[in-house]
Amino acid sequence: MSGIIILLIALVALVCGYVFYGRWLAKQWGVDNSRVTPAVEYNDGVDYVPTKAQVVFGHQFASIAGAGPINGPIQAAIFGWVPVLLWCVIGGIFFGAVQDFSAMFASVRNKGRSIGIIIENYVGKLGKRLFLIFVYLFCILVIAAFADIVAKSFGVTDAATAAINKSHGQVATTSVLFIFFAVAFGFFLKYVDIYKIFGPKGGTAVNTGIAIVVLIVAIAIGLAFPMTITVKTWSLLVFAYILVACVAPVWALLQPRDYLNSYLLVAMIAAAVIGIFASNPEVKLNAFNGFKLANGTSIFPFLFVTIACGAVSGFHSLVSSDTASKQVSRESDMLPISYGAMLVESLLGIISLVAVCAIAVDGAVPAGTPQDLFASAVAGFLGPLGVSPDLAFTLISLSVSAFALTSLDSVARVGRLTWQELFLDAEDDHSGKELPGWKKILTNSWVATIIVLAPSYALMKVGYAKIWPLFGSANQLLAVLALAAVAVFLKKIKKNNKMMILPMFFMLAVTGVALIQIIIKQAKTIIAPTAMSDNLAAGLQLVFAILLLALAVIVVVQCCQKLFGKDEE
């Protein structure tokens, strides 16, 4: 079996999914370019900014990808390559992309508001409050995790080898340059109308040319001048960056940085695809290892929770409805931005699968972190093209770090917006000008950002990894809530919502079983005579699991009452 065959199967299926199913969804929901989008109607120059489709696509894809489509499929490959391939393709087309597209569509049709406000409008205020609390806790988990990943991918340590420290320093220098170049690029796009000067096609070409030059310059400088800063210092610097990124206008940092990074990320995917065709790697991984492994791990729910972003991820609904929806200039742009970005992410999941297939040992996943396995495999794919393995490894590591950093500042902004909406009703003045004193303070952008980042930093320092098993379940459970909320919205506006029902209940079953397993496991740990630190970690996981499951069940029940109850006149 060849890795090329796996890749071709995925490519054909994903393209057909976009052309036929994606366009069918747009027709069913009545996507209409004659309608004014919130980005145009409420343009405030900060969060609501009408933007070219390719720029918003860059933001969407860079934000939703993270390290998930690399980590998940490689970890889930312990069951074999067939189940991973099937779920990435089927889940991506019929679950993940539907969620991302529908969340963006619902937000655009509701003044660019988040899923929380949509729940308030169509389900009730209690559902909205509980949903936003869920999202707030979820964002803290994600920020703590990705901040630690970024800090460790940038920082140098005494324990690491000189080669690894050098690679980390190169990645750090390049990433920092990306930020400064992005700010300059953002101001350039803001105050120079290149589309007016060069026309639509010429303006796009100029944008692309500038982005490519900036990337090459930043990478060249980064490779030549690696930074040597400790992980501890980077932890502080990363949070200082997030603090500014959360409140800065999207056009000044978030949009241009994600746009520039999207070229790097797409280039990485393109290089991996070309490398696979050039090297034609042999599939050394077993096709299927059974529904239950020797260690007791069952394919249900482990496969579906672990693959996560490669097929469906609740976090995507937050990006679609909290940030990207406020930048959409035309309704027709939503299909490529949301549905299309998700399918590209599924493709990345397939590439990760081919990577681990190529380096499998005795039919099994080899030892090592998913990021290192992925970088090593792709570096090997590029060998026949004459690319140095060391250079390829550094560039792939840079791309993976870019995924993590773009997700980090996006989820931090989502956390800030979520906290603000927690204290705002649908009828409130969301600009903050006419709010009472206490609401004005709690919804202040700086205050809200600090309230999100402070517990995230504390969690990172005390050991977020001890509650990280909850992330997969919480992420997928968030997808259930988003699907349920949008299904109610579609019913209210008399649009077809049947495509939401199966994904919603299937993912509810997956996450319900996963969280119950976590609750049972941690309860047994607490009862057993173990070390105090183990008891504290188990207790923390137990509290989070119970809280997340309870919040989700209440919201889903409320949504189902609206979804399957009689229509209100």
Search tags:
mainly alpha, Hydantoin permease, 569 residues, single chain
Q: Catalogue the unreliable spans.
A: none
Mean pLDDT value = 88
* CATH topology term: Hydantoin permease
Helices and strands: which structural class?
A: mainly alpha
* Major β-sheet annotation: none
Structural commentary:
It is a single chain. The protein has 569 residues and is an all-alpha fold. It has one domain (3-470): Hydantoin permease (Orthogonal Bundle), CATH 1.10.4160. Helices cover 74% and strands 0% of the residues. The chain is built from 21 helices and no strands. The chain has helices spanning 3-29, 38-41, 53-65, 68-76, 81-108, 115-122, 125-154, 162-191, 194-224, 231-247, 254-279, 299-307, 314-322, 334-358, 370-381, 389-422, 437-442, 445-462, 469-492, 498-527, 532-564. Helix 1 runs antiparallel to helix 14 (334-358), helix 7 packs across helix 21 (532-564) and helix 10 (231-247) runs antiparallel to helix 18. The radius of gyration is 23 Å and the shape is globular. The model has no long low-confidence stretch (mean pLDDT 88).
